Amino acid sequence: MDSFRFDEKYLSQIPALQVLVNLGYQYLTPAEALAARGGKAGNVLLEEILREQLKKLNRIQHKGGSYLFSEENIQSAIQRLKNVKYDGLLKTNEAVYDLLTLGVALEQSIEGDLKSFTLNYVDWRNPAHNIYHVAAEFAVERTRNVETCRPDVVLFVNGIPFAVIECKSPKVEVAQAISQTIRNQRDEYIPRLFTYVQTVMAVNKNEARYATTGTPAKFWSKWKEDLADAELAPLLERPLPESVKASLFDLAFAELGVREEIAPYLVGRQVTEQDRTLYALCRPERLLEMAWAFTVFDGGVRKIARYQQVFAIREVLARVKQTDDSGKRRGGIVWHTQGSGKSLTMVMLARALALEPSIRNPRIVLVTDRVDLDKQLGNTFAACGLSPDRAESGRHLVELVSDWCTSSTRRWPTRSSAMPRPTSSCWWTRPSAPSWAVTRRACGRCSRMPATSASPARRS
Fold it and tell me: CA dist 264 to 121, 219, 246, 260, Å?
């Protein structure tokens, strides 16, 4: 058992921490992590770090002036996040997700004017404005129990646990790490940690899988991305600071009952599958992107995008932002295979379009040629917080688009002959503000028919 634990740490956990620290995460020893949460293993938020970040990230803009949130409001925001009522893992996780993505409205008096202002926990659009930490052997007290569970690696954004990584020896199947992570989410273990977690990972040197909170084992996925070894080489060639390295080897040798003052340390090693996946999913900008733009709650079930969905949507966004000399956008086709997640890709694309600041007030039309797919799309959008309108004819669709455009700005001149009657049914939708805090802005493209937009042909 001792040799297994050593292999796990030396061949998986320590190399993982090396990559993460070199990606910009500040390493916290177990003692530092415990101190940052008030010395209580039952707490999972690094409250002092969170407090300082809330002060740095948030300003009240009022009548041309910039003001700080009061200490009382900063504390109130921390308490709102800390004391979310536990109502089962997924419901609580969704409530926390809403707080993280939408922020919290707090009243404050500015120059005698009492108004409500939004305080944000994360700067989603500017990853560099946030602060990132990584902790190893993060001990969390079990529910109604003095015993603790210790996830191998936990990643924090502004003191909030965002990712849990379980590391295994290359002799052990990744399935065991998946099973262990799922077990830790059960009510009798440490579900409180996972109410905040956005991404979970199971890795060994040769294999890696990722998912999100509440994902069953069969849906944990492999990430595939073309990453050149030269892109990852700097992360492996740069040694860890001596203080970090000493702490990690203290962990590695603690269970063997020995201490090696000069322990071998892998620098300049070969790139592994674990390295590739950690770089792909855990570099700060990607970690935030996966949580903010590529996560949906489908009927109360949290789902995270697979690699083909992410890259298809990013291709679509890049494509629709291109225009010709007359201002028309480019179109395209996304090829899918059966079971590749077409419906959720459409939902995530709708969200991505709404979140893209350069695309003002997007209008989205979905055309289906099968009754069963029509029902599936309608149900999927509704379950994910969108309320599409079903067009019964081409003329009705034109009216739906025209009505929305009229309510936003000026009337859009329409011609019913320009819109063919759908072969089966058509859905018209726009992202809903309550779910994703999308500001309804005036449409600047009302003078022309919106182009049908998709990515270049891509088989997934």
Answer: 40, 37, 12, 9
